[in-house]
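Regression test attached.
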Amino acid sequence: MFRDTAGAVRLKPAELLVLFAVGAAGGLIGDAAHVQSQTTQYLDDSVPFIWESALWFPLLVGLATASAAELRLRLGSPRPGFDPRIAGAAIAALLAIYAITALVSDQPAGPATTLVIMLAVLVAAWLGGGTPAFACATAAALLGPAAEVLIVELELARYSPTADGLFGVPTWLPALYFAFGYVAARLAELAVARRAAAP
Amino acid sequence: MFRDTAGAVRLKPAELLVLFAVGAAGGLIGDAAHVQSQTTQYLDDSVPFIWESALWFPLLVGLATASAAELRLRLGSPRPGFDPRIAGAAIAALLAIYAITALVSDQPAGPATTLVIMLAVLVAAWLGGGTPAFACATAAALLGPAAEVLIVELELARYSPTADGLFGVPTWLPALYFAFGYVAARLAELAVARRAAAP
Amino acid sequence: MFRDTAGAVRLKPAELLVLFAVGAAGGLIGDAAHVQSQTTQYLDDSVPFIWESALWFPLLVGLATASAAELRLRLGSPRPGFDPRIAGAAIAALLAIYAITALVSDQPAGPATTLVIMLAVLVAAWLGGGTPAFACATAAALLGPAAEVLIVELELARYSPTADGLFGVPTWLPALYFAFGYVAARLAELAVARRAAAP
C-alpha cells in the first residue's frame, strides 16, 4: 500500500494523474453538452479553448476529481474489491446525468431539479460507501456550485435564464455535484483496490 | 411480529403512519413537478393548498401508499432482509419516473408512454417480489388512473391536452401507478424486515 | 445441449423463432416511437405497413436479433444461469433507450448523443458477457447504422434534419445498436441457460 507517514492509504502520483485525466475528459464531454444546448455560455473568449470549453474548465474538473478522491481516502479505509466495470459504469452514469441536465435546462426548473436529485440519490444508493462517500458528495455539492457562482460573478461564463435560479447557477447543480462526489469517492476506492488486483 | 388474529403479518400503526407520510411527501414532490410543467392544472381553488397541491392530493397518495403496503402483506409473507438503501433508492426511482412524466408530458404520447412503461418494467424487475408485488402493482395501475379519471370528471383538476389520451388522463399514467405499486409493496416488506433488524 | 457438428452450442429453431419475434415486436414498438415523434419518416408507402412501420422494418430487426444471438454463441460458451427477470429487464432497458432517442431527436445532437452513449455503456456494464458480447455489440454498432444509411440512400425512409448528422442517420444510432448487441447476446445466453432450467 502507498501510505503517508501516519500510515493512511494515499493515492500515488500516477493514480492522481489518471483521476485528473478522467475528470478533465468527463468535464469536456459534459461541458460540450452544456454549451451545445446553450445551458451555459462562455463570456470571456480571450482564453484558449479545447473543444467547447475554456481551457480552465477541464483543468478545474480534473483537479476537483483528484481532490475529492484524495479526500475520500483521508476520511476512512476504502472498501476492497476491484472491478473496472464499476468504474466505467459510475463514470457513464455521471455523464448521463450531466447530459440530462443539458437536455432539461430549458424545461421548468421544478421537474428538472427533482429528476436530477432523484438520479443523484440512485447513484448514491448504488455506489454506497458510507459516511466518507457521503461527506465527499456533500462537500462537492457545496463547493462545486459555490465555485460556479464565483465563475458567474466574475462574468467568465453564465447559465441560460431558464437555468440560473440558484444565485445564477441551476437549482439542479448541487445534485449533479453530489453525484460527482459519490463517483469520485468510488473511483478512489477502486484505484486503491486495483493495486491488490494487479499482477 | 405484529400479526392479526389469523397470524398474518400486519403493519403497526406507526409503520402505517410512516408509509402514509412518505406517500404524502412523495405525492407533493411529484405533483409539484406536474403542476409546474403544466402537465396538470387544479380547477377548484376553493380548497386549501400545500405547495402546488390541493390538500386532498397528498392525503390520497399517502392513503394509497399505506393501503398498497397493507394489501401487500395480506397477499403473502414478505421477504426478509432490511436495507434502508433499497427503500431510498425505490422512492427515488419512483420520483424520477414521476418527474420524467412531467418533462415528457408535452411530447408525443407514443414515445413518452413507451418510456414510462419500460422504466416501470425495470423497477418491477429490480424490486421483484413475485405474485403479491405484481398484484399490488396491477391493482394500483387500475385503481389509481380510475380515481384520477373521477377527479377529472368532477372537474377538480385536468391534464394538459397533450396528456389526456386515456379518458382524460395520460396514457402513461397506469405505468406510473404500476411502478408505484411495486415500490409500495417493497416498502411494506422493508418495514416488516426492519423490526428484526432493530436493536 | 443443442450443438452443431463441431460441438458448439447452437440455438434451436424454436429459440431462434422466439428471438426473431422478440426483435420484431421490439422493433415495432421502438419504430412507432420514432415515427410518432417524427424522428423518422417512411418515404415509400407502396409496401404494407404494420402499426407505424413498413413491413420490412420489424422483419429486419427480428433477423438482426436472431443473427446477433447466433453470433454470440459462435464466439464462445454462454454463461449459465437462467432468470427471466434479466431477459425482461434487458428488453425494457433497450426499449427505454429507444424511446429516449425518439424524445431527444429534436434536441441538440451533442447532449442527445452523449446521453445515449452513456446509457449504452451502462447496459454493457450491467449485462457484461466479456469479449463475445462486446464483439456482438461492436458488430451491431457498425452493421446496423450501415444498413440504415443504405435505407436512407435508397430513399425508403429518412431521419429528421435534426437527427441525420452521421451520413443521414443520427449520431446516437451506433450507441443504440451497441446496446442492442449486448441485449441480443444476453438473450442468447439466457435461451441456452433456460434449457437446463426447464423441467
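Expected vs. actual: identical. Strands of chain A lie at 40-42, 49-50, 53-54, 157-159.
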